[in-house]
Design goal:
The chain is of the alpha+beta class and 172 residues long. The chain has a single domain, classed as Nucleoside Triphosphate Pyrophosphohydrolase (Alpha-Beta Complex), CATH 3.90.79. Helices cover 17% and strands 40% of the residues. It is built from 3 helices and 9 strands. The protein has helices at residues 47-59, 121-126, 135-144, and strands spanning 8-13, 16-17, 20-28, 31-35, 38-40, 61-78, 87-103, 113-119, 149-150. Strands 5-1-7-6-9 form a 5-stranded mixed β-sheet. The longest helix is centred in the N-terminal third of the chain and has 13 residues, at 47-59. The protein is globular, with a radius of gyration of 17 Å.
Length: 172
């Protein structure tokens, strides 16, 4: 029986205010890296809900996605070491722009996130050697070029949240 290849689905928030973009600095196997507030889609979660959740977890701010910026793919390869097995991961990223809400007092940043930063486009371009994802600059450039798509482009069927489909199997 062959194994079906599946990309790793992620969601990312592209947040701009006053000419600067919100990024997070996080611990990775490669050291401290910069990334958009982003993460993996959870089972039973819509793309929009996943983006709002990841942004809250990584920035402590509410976020309301209002537009789809784009759909992106990238590949990550890391050699194995005595601590990690070799990795070859293809990421399928759904990037959203929207409205950043209030800081949620009493929350803490997600595990591995060191801090949030507001950087200008030039600062982001100049820090490419510290980017966790090669898609940070591409998403920013698409945002700056006015690329936007309505959320109505995305449909999430009600079966996503049915109990019999959660946890990877059908209920008996």
């Amino acid at each position: 029986m062959s194994t079906r290849w599946k990309p790793s689905t992620t969601v990312a928030a592209i947040i701009e205010q006053n000419g600067k973009f919100l990024l997070v600095e996080e611990h990775t196997h490669e050291g401290l890296r910069l990334n958009n507030p982003a993460g993996h889609l959870d089972e039973g979660e819509s793309l929009v809900a996943g983006c709002a959740r990841e942004t809250l977890e990584e920035t402590m701010h509410l976020f309301t996605p209002t537009e789809l910026l784009g759909v992106y793919m990238s590949r990550f390869q890391r050699s194995g070491s005595n601590l990690c097995a070799p990795e070859d991961i293809t990421y399928l990223r759904f990037a959203f722009c929207g409205t950043l809400g209030a800081l949620q007092a009493g929350r803490s940043l997600d595990t591995g996130i060191v801090r949030t930063l507001w950087l200008s486009p030039d600062e982001i371009r100049a820090s490419a050697d510290r980017h966790r994802s090669p898609l940070i600059v591409q998403c920013m450039e698409d945002y700056l070029n006015g690329q936007r798509f309505p959320l109505s482009l995305i449909y999430s069927d009600a079966t996503l949240t049915l109990p019999q489909f959660l946890s990877g199997g059908l209920a008996a």
